[in-house]
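User: Structure please.
Assistant: Input sequence and predicted structure:
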Amino acid sequence: MSHSTKRIIGSVSLFVVLAGIVALLFVSATSPTFLKNDTKLTAEANAGTPIVQAIKTPDPTPTPTPNKIENPAQEWADDMINLLLNGNSKSTFADFNPEIAHHYIEAWSQPRPGVLAIEVRDRDWSKCDLDALGTNVLATAGWDNPRLKRVEVSTGDAKPQVVERNSESALPPSCA
């Protein structure tokens, strides 16, 4: 095959690929549903489906599980924790990096409507570490549930670090 024939075939092939890409971009730009997630449909499909299932491990790590006793406040807190895990593409807290507080979450509850209280194992966490966890919860779980207004993160008996939904900055002041 001559050099000019190879060049023509290469040019035609390149043109076909570029035309396909342009056509895909055109369809994507003009169609409001092409390659777009339908959030309502996704929410309906996921309704009642447990996002996280407990995994038997030698080191018992708390994982959200449905309550057998009806407790709406705890069910709401469990839902928020499931949204946190799902929003970070994790199945358990052990999947988080051991250098961050997320890895050491031990308990969670809803002390008041709109408030998620999270307790982490004490490892001399800085205010920034606890604020970063609260901010991440609001960015993931709060994104899907606007009723989540406040996250309180503590290490047990210590006063909790509080992160409010309407913070002025995405970076907690304690981390600046």
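The chain has a mean pLDDT of 81.
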